Every structure is written in structure tokens, then in C-alpha cells.
């Protein structure tokens, strides 16, 4: 099975330089639909679904391979190699930010920039590190998800999305969560919330933009500050957007921040 088939890869746009959009937990490539049109004139836009999400091939899911984020990073590496992508601008939302970091460590010669949207290298507080959650918080979250995935989705999605004045956004995220296979989603959640990629940040060698939302219960400001401090030469932009999904709640602001970074850093 090719990567294109396995990961439901979709390519559009008029440009030569690829910009790859990678979705977060419980989502799929459709979450980028408000941003993609703004990049299609100048870039080759590459969208894909992580295995187990969206319209990826369910038969390709391997519990051992995807027991760590490295399995998902391998898919990104294979996608770049199969499509022969170079000078890649990788836009990773939430857990895909760290997946992008891992992929860029392995094939830095194919990457020209990392755009990390709401990144978190570790969600659990640890000594002087503030990840936003205690280990008990995460254990309870995972237990709730395991015991009642649909109920967890409907309860958590509005809180993750925030923007209570636009409840349709929370509903969309909840519906996205509910479309996922509960068993795979549960395992992906465990991988996501128990991973520790702090040591990988110092190895990033490509220009990096960190987009931090002003209020985000999943990746609070202290986490964005930490990522910024660890990645040499990175740029941190705090958006006016609230919640964890600015690609849905504030696509224009998010797009403008990405374009400004690529322009000022002369990424091309």
C-alpha cells in the first residue's frame, strides 16, 4: 500500500514549494479547510490523515507501530520521500507539532520550516516544568475516554474548542471525535498525553514558528514559552484566538501569522 493510499493524501495548489498540514488528535484533514485556499496560489498543498483518522486505511493501523509518536513520524517521513518533497513547510496542530519535530529530526534536509500550532512536548507537570496537567488529571482523562468515549467527546470538545459564543465549533469538534474508531482513538490519546518530547526540541535546526493561543486549556502559555526557549532561533506568536483549534476558530489570524513568518524568514 502506498503512502498516498494509506494516509489519504490529497495534493492541490499551483506552487512548487510544498506546505504539509497535519491535524491533531480526533481530527482529520478537513480541519484545515478554512486555511488551505489561502495557500494554494503560492504552494503545493499536501493534506493527509493520520492512520486511524479520517479516510486513512484502517487496515494499516498497527498497534505496535503507533505505540509511540515515532510511528506517526515515520509516516510523515515516508510521505515526504514517496512524493519527493523538499523545502517542506510543515504545519502541525497539537500532537502533530511534535510529530513534525520528530520527522524533521530524521530528515532535516527535506524541511525548510516548522509551524507548531498549540504544541506541547509534555502534558504532565514535572518538577519545574508546567505542562498544564497532573498525572492524576491525565489518568482520569484517559479512564473517562476508555469507559465512555462518546460521552467524553461530547463533554470535552466544547471545552477544548472554547469560543462558547460559537457553539457550532464545539459541536464540529465533538462530531469529529465521534467519527473516530474508539479503540484507536483511545490508544492515540494515551500516546499523545503520556509522551515526553522535551529533549527533542533542542535538536530542531530549521526555522520554527510557535503559535500559541491566548487561552488554551490543552497547551497553556507556559508550554509555548518552554517550546520557544528550547528551540534555538524560534519565534513565538501569541494569537488573539482562544481555545486549542485556531485553524477552525481563527483561520484568518492563523494564516496571517504563518504567512508573515514565512515572508520575514525568507522561507522558500
Task: Provide a brief overview of the structure.
The chain has 268 residues and is an alpha/beta fold.
Task: Note down, in words, how this protein is organized.
There is one protein chain. The chain has 268 residues and is α/β, with parallel strands linked by helices. It has a single domain (3-264), classed as Alpha/Beta hydrolase fold, catalytic domain (Rossmann fold). The chain has 10 helices and 7 strands. The protein has helices at 3-6, 69-82, 95-106, 135-147, 149-161, 167-179, 182-194, 221-230, 246-249, 251-264; strands spanning 10-12, 18-22, 44-47, 88-93, 111-117, 208-215, 235-242. It has a 7-stranded mixed beta sheet with strand order 1-3-2-4-5-6-7, sandwiched between helices. Helix 2 crosses helix 3 (95-106). The longest helix is centred in the first third of the chain and has 14 residues, at 69-82. The two termini are 31 Å apart. The mean pLDDT is 95.
Amino acid at each position: 500500500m502506498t503512502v498516498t493510499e494509506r494516509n489519504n493524501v490529497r495534493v492541490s495548489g499551483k506552487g512548487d514549494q510544498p506546505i504539509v498540514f497535519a491535524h491533531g488528535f480526533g481530527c482529520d484533514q478537513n480541519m484545515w479547510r478554512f486555511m488551505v485556499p489561502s495557500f494554494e496560489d503560492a504552494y503545493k498543498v499536501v493534506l493527509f490523515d493520520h492512520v486511524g483518522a479520517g479516510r486513512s486505511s484502517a487496515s494499516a493501523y498497527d498497534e505496535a507501530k503507533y505505540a509511540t509518536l515515532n510511528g506517526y513520524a515515520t509516516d510523515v517521513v515516508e510521505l515526504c520521500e514517496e512524493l519527493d518533497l523538499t523545502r517542506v513547510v510543515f504545519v502541525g496542530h497539537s500532537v502533530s507539532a511534535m510529530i513534525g519535530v520528530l520527522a524533521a529530526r530524521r530528515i532535516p534536509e527535506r524541511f525548510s520550516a516548522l509551524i507548531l500550532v498549540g504544541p506541547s512536548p509534555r502534558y504532565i507537570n514535572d518538577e519545574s516544568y508546567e505542562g498544564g496537567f497532573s498525572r492524576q488529571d491525565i489518568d482520569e482523562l484517559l479512564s473517562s475516554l476508555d469507559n465512555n468515549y462518546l460521552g467524553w467527546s461530547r463533554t470535552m470538545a466544547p471545552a477544548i474548542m472554547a469560543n462558547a459564543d460559537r457553539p457550532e465549533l464545539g459541536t464540529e469538534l465533538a462530531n469529529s471525535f465521534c467519527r473516530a474508531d474508539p479503540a484507536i482513538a483511545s490508544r492515540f490519546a494515551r500516546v499523545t498525553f503520556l509522551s515526553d518530547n522535551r529533549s527533542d526540541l533542542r535538536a530542531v535546526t530549521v526555522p520554527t514558528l510557535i503559535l500559541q493561543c491566548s487561552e488554551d486549556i490543552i497547551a497553556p502559555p507556559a508550554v509555548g514559552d518552554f517550546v520557544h526557549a528550547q528551540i534555538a532561533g524560534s519565534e513565538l506568536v501569541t494569537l488573539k484566538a482562544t481555545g486549542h483549534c485556531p485553524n477552525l476558530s481563527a483561520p484568518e489570524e492563523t494564516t496571517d501569522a504563518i504567512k508573515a513568518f514565512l515572508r520575514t524568514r525568507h522561507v522558500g
